[in-house]
Specification:
Helices cover about 50% and strands about 10% of the residues. It is of the alpha/beta class and about 375 residues long. The strands form 2 sheets. It has a 5-stranded mixed beta sheet, sandwiched between helices. β3 and β4 form a beta hairpin. α1 crosses α3, α4 packs across α5 and α8 packs across α9. The chain starts with 5 loop residues before the first helix and ends with a strand.
Amino acid sequence: MQGVPASTANRRALVSTVRERRAGKENGKPGAGTGARDAEAAGQNRRTYDADRCFKKIGKLKTRAEKREFVSSHVRDFGSGQKACEAIELAPSSYYYRKKSEPLAKQQSDADLRDLIEEIQSEFPQYGVRRVHMELVRNYGMKINRKRVQRIMQKFGLKALIWRGFKIKTTDSDHDYGYAPNRIRGTEVTSIDQVWVADITYIRIKTGFVYLATVMDLYSRKIVGWAISDRIDAALCMAALNDAITKRKPLPGLIHHSDRGVQYACDEYKTVLEKHGILPSMSAQGYCYDNAFMESFFKTLKAEEVYLTEYETKDDVLKSIPEFIENVYNEKRLHSSLGYYSPVEYEKLAEQGKKLLKKKGAPTIVQVTR
């Protein structure tokens, strides 16, 4: 006896499946009433005709797209998509395939995202994939995968701008004023105005240099005091310190940490600290890690402001640097170490309680151990 051709077998399977689904119950099953059996017998020819017509439709299906559409329209007749796929010899994976968005729509979406990324990087040229992604999520309200941001930035060459400058010496530790002990090593910084860090950097102008002294709150990374001068002396550092004290009004017991520079070790500076109950702290000789937080700020300042601007005079610096410190760095710039909050946002959250900070995924403790 010769085997049954595949087309005939498929037809029989199809007719049988359609009959079973449309009859609801097979003849002779317990509980099937006489009326139901009579109705099935009366409609037998019609259902066979429907199955035949269905099979004829299958014969006309040429492409996978046509077969997927057929299965979608007749899935109830077969009982499941799996059975329908078997009947028309279509792989189930092909049926469950979901067509991706149209190329033109995808290109338009990529172009729109590129515009947003360029807008962000125009204000923050040093933002890479992580910060751009968080900016889109936090401040643009987008739900977007970081890998997509990375793909778009790579596709259009939207790289973080990196500048490499040169250094001049700003620390003179060869003096006779003595040095304060290091009070912050191993300290857990758990609140605002617990530890301040102070340092100095230079800014190139057309005719030479001007100097910026800053004071940072170590808990929030906020610059709480600053001063600019064309002289790198104790008066510059005291102006930054007094600015911080005026703004923050710290309680006695605050730790002020700096390097061993003469500007911070001199009697005038120590007098201001003592007057306000602030405890001096200094790094060990040649040990720069305690001031790494301030060095990170200076790197950001140089890369995102100083190297992008040609300052001709001290007045040019006085116009641009305060704007960057107060309105960009403190208010807007996202810090990965703060759970991608700006210093101002982080301090507001800290005032509402540490539980909220933990819930948001930002750290509540800074431990200086190195």
